[in-house]
Amino acid sequence: MVKICCIGAGYVGGPTMAVIALKCPSVEVAVVDISKSRIAAWNSDQLPIYEPGLDDVVKQCRGKNLFFSTDVEKHVYEADIVFVSVNTPTKTRGLGAGKAADLTYWESAARMIADVSKSDKIVVEKSTVPVKTAEAIEKILTHNAKGIQFQILSNPEFLAEGTAIQDLFNPDRVLIGGRETPEGQKAIQKLKDVYAQWVPEERILTTNLWSAELSKLAANAFLAQRISSVNAMSALCEATGANVKQVSFAVGTDTRIGPKFLNASVGFGGSCFQKDILNLVYICECNGLPEVAEYWKQVIKINDYQKSRFVNRVVSSMFNTVANKKIAILGFAFKKDTGDTRETPAIDVCKGLLGDKARLSIYDPQVTEDQIQRDLWMNKFDWDHPIHLQPTSPTTEKKVSVVWDAYEATKDADGVCILTEWDEFKSLDYQRMYDNMRKPAFVFDGRNVVDDDKLREIGFIVYSIGKPLDPWLKDMPAVA
Ligand code: NAI
């Protein structure tokens, strides 16, 4: 029986290993983590992450061929294949601060693997890492090898949160990079055999190590670039009277471009896009390619611009001040169908409004109050560290209340900001909301989910990203 161990029981490690266990009953999978609370949650009925379909997969395999444990060393020792899916945050200090990937967690995992191993192993990079990381990992492993053979593979994960289980069941592709030596090819084949149990052969791509590592950074950069491109257009639409929905539909019908990932919004979020692009920028700079670095940097700049543009719209529409006004925030997760708030645009928008002294009442169907308070209080990049190393949230943050109902959030509010595209926000009773708000009542739709005409009929002043401006907004000061 092949034994797999995955170090890191997070958004990637948990779901990917659960699906491997489900699809490969003859493989034993152990998911290990240094966070006791995370492992306890994986072993309970309340899993640590919300992902449609995940509960079901875990329930089918847990205790049979899927185990969650804090006994990291034991499971690494026993494994034939060790996946490493630990955090790779952006460095906050020292060389490359604010851009380069911090490989502290990766390095400590690699050293531990070297220390406890007594048999040959395949070590798989599942985390997103800078290109050439495998070389460093190889050095750490072989320096302490005691005659043991380690083969490093790069097998970046392309799942999207919110659709992770679907993506893992039916991936566009699985990418495996390895050394171009007979041993490297043998290791690739062994991992390929695992995926081949449910993924069609032609969708399992094999490359050299560096192509696999770089492909993941490149894919995320391309995806984020599409969002920044349409968001840049949204600003121009507002200035000219064009409608970004019509423009992106027209653009997306070109088969060379395609319709996906062309929704204008308040900005992209999630743990990966910004981190991976910053990392790509750093790698370009280190390789003497400042023009290429500058090109990708713009993707992040537009994203930041889009968030501050949204805040400026809110403030300028409401007579240039939101001080002591109650603003309801609907949605805090970085997208629908996840409780993940890492780098969610809601953080920057809320901080911007708080900076102008607004009072916020926040509702998200999947994000806890503790998480929201922690996010609004935490320093940039602190989130991407194991949970027990993160600062705890302050006990009181008077300007922010978190409620469990959209109507409660909007009661007596002056404005509503929709920051996540949860389906339920489409079918809220906006008349009821309007009746309970102060007038004039504003809706700022950062995800283009509401029917703006209907809301205007009710009496709202509506701002929808990239759509022709409400007459009210046209007369307000220009947005920087
Ligand atoms: P996460 O923060 O949810 O999980 C990482 C886990 O690793 C944490 O539970 C942490 O306690 C654990 N950990 C850290 N150091 C450890 C050590 N030495 N030993 C044992 N456990 C350790 O992070 P997530 O989202 O799962 O991401 C992991 C990697 O996968 C990152 O490199 C990320 O960029 C990449 N990735 C993430 C995707 C996503 O959608 N979240 C998609 C594709 C890749």
Automatic annotation (TrEMBL):
Gene for this chain: UGDH4
Binding site for NAD(+): 8-13, 33, 38, 86-90, 127-128, 161, 272-275, 342
Catalytic class of the enzyme: oxidoreductase
The UDP-glucose/GDP-mannose dehydrogenase C-terminal domain, residue ranges: 328-452
InterPro entries in the record: 6-PGluconate_DH-like_C_sf, NAD(P)-bd_dom_sf, UDP-Glc/GDP-Man, UDP-Glc/GDP-Man_DH_C, UDP-Glc/GDP-Man_DH_C_sf, UDP-Glc/GDP-Man_DH_dimer, UDP-Glc/GDP-Man_DH_N, UDPglc_DH_euk
Native source species: Glycyrrhiza uralensis (Chinese licorice)
Native organism taxonomy: Eukaryota, Viridiplantae, Streptophyta, Embryophyta, Tracheophyta
Family under the similarity heading: Belongs to the UDP-glucose/GDP-mannose dehydrogenase family.
Assigned EC number: 1.1.1.22
Keyword Oxidoreductase annotated: yes
Protein name per its UniProtKB record: UDP-glucose 6-dehydrogenase
